[in-house]
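User: Let's play a game. I give you a shape written as tokens, and you guess the letters that built it. Ready? Here's round one.
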């Protein structure tokens, strides 16, 4: 073979090898492209499915609680769905300790499934709870169980933790800031109280009171003006209540107890309020006859007897007498202070009233008062200012003299 022919054959060989290599590269590149496209499509489908399903969350407000053997604990449950699909899910409890029992409860009774709406929020979740009954023979300790909801591609779970102890724990309470108060019979007592709901579920408390006969008791939620006979308290929350207590009009001095009750399905709460009534304070001011009128002359003193009566059932101390009359009038008492006036007793004092010298004839009102730190009484005394009758007699005499003189003149000169 000539050199020229040898070179020609090698060129053909290299050309064939190059063509094969190019075809191989093209084939591999096409397969890789197809595989990459398939993977991209799968990722897009999964992303789209995930977007439709969203996140489904099963939760409870208080996943860990304490309970006593024999107790029934209720857990409120919520299913939140951030996806755009809806489904019916089956409810179940797993890892339930031996001898324990429980069931799911909806708005109308026991349930086993629940409908989950698209984009369902916690507030939109249908009413759902799990009632767990602890057996009487349960040992003290820590227990866990799992609540599940699954179906139609949705799946969610939450764990519940229960601490079993025979010691009192998680008990609700009814308290008062100042449960003991003191005042007289006319006092409107007011107590700031608080209901503390330590349960894991909301409670509706019915309110009542045991008080002495004739007393009135009312309940008003803090910050409100309307009286109530019951009110709800959320789980783990507190509610302030203003309790108004008014003794009867005939109450006597002494110590009294008013027992408040707040009763719900799971709680019976009692609170004793102690009230010390110091007595009934009262004082009246009048005249011995009850006639509150008198006469006086301008610039001259007039004596008026006043009667002061202790109308309460408690002795009154340090009673002060005062009066308010017209301008430039002088009013005084023979006693301005009464150190002690026993319950039911009456004391007479003398008031001296002197109208102003230039007082015009007519009626005037003078306000007479008696008071101390506990009681006050007053009387409106009407004073009629008059003029002396001597001027009237003189006027009549003058008129009579004039008439006589006229008669004599007429008699003497009337015949001419």
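Assistant: Ready! My guess for every position:
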């Amino acid at each position: 073979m000539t050199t020229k022919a040898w070179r020609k054959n090698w060129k053909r060989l290299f050309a064939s090898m190059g063509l094969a290599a190019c075809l191989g590269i093209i084939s591999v590149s096409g397969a890789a492209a197809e595989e990459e496209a398939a993977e991209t499509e799968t990722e897009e489908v999964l992303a789209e499915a995930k977007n439709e399903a969203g996140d489904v969350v099963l939760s409870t407000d208080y996943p860990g609680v304490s309970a006593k053997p024999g107790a029934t604990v209720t857990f409120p449950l919520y299913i939140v769905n951030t996806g755009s699909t809806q489904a019916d899910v089956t409810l179940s409890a797993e890892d339930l300790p031996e001898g324990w029992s429980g069931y799911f409860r909806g708005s109308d009774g026991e349930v086993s499934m629940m409908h989950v709406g698209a984009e369902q929020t916690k507030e939109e979740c249908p009413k759902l709870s799990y009632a767990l009954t602890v057996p009487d023979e349960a040992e003290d300790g820590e227990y866990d169980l799992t609540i599940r909801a699954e179906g139609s591609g949705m799946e969610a779970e939450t764990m519940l933790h229960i601490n079993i102890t025979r010691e009192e724990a998680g008990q609700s309470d009814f308290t008062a800031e100042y449960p003991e108060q003191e005042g007289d019979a006319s006092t409107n007592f007011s107590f700031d109280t608080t209901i503390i709901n330590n349960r894991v579920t909301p409670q509706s408390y019915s309110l009542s009171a045991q008080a002495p006969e004739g007393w009135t008791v009312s309940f008003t939620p803090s910050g409100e003006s309307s009286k109530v006979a019951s009110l709800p308290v959320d789980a783990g929350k507190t509610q302030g209540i203003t309790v108004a207590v008014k003794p009867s009009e005939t109450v006597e001095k002494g110590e009294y107890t008013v027992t408040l009750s707040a009763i719900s399905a799971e709680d019976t709460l009692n609170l004793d309020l102690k009230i010390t009534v110091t007595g009934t304070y009262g004082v009246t001011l009048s005249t011995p006859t009850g006639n509150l009128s008198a006469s006086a002359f301008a610039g001259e003193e007039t004596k008026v007897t006043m009667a002061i009566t202790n109308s309460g059932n408690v002795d009154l101390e340090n009673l002060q007498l005062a009066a308010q009359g017209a301008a430039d009038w002088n009013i005084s008492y023979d006693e301005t202070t009464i150190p002690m006036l026993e319950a039911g007793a009456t004391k007479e004092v003398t008031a001296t009233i002197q109208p102003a010298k230039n007082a015009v004839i007519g009626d005037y009102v003078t306000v007479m008062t008696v008071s101390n730190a506990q009681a006050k009484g007053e009387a409106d005394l009407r004073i009629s200012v008059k003029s002396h009758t001597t001027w009237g007699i003189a006027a009549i005499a003058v008129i009579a003299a004039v008439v006589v003189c006229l008669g004599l003149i007429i008699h003497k000169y009337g015949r001419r």
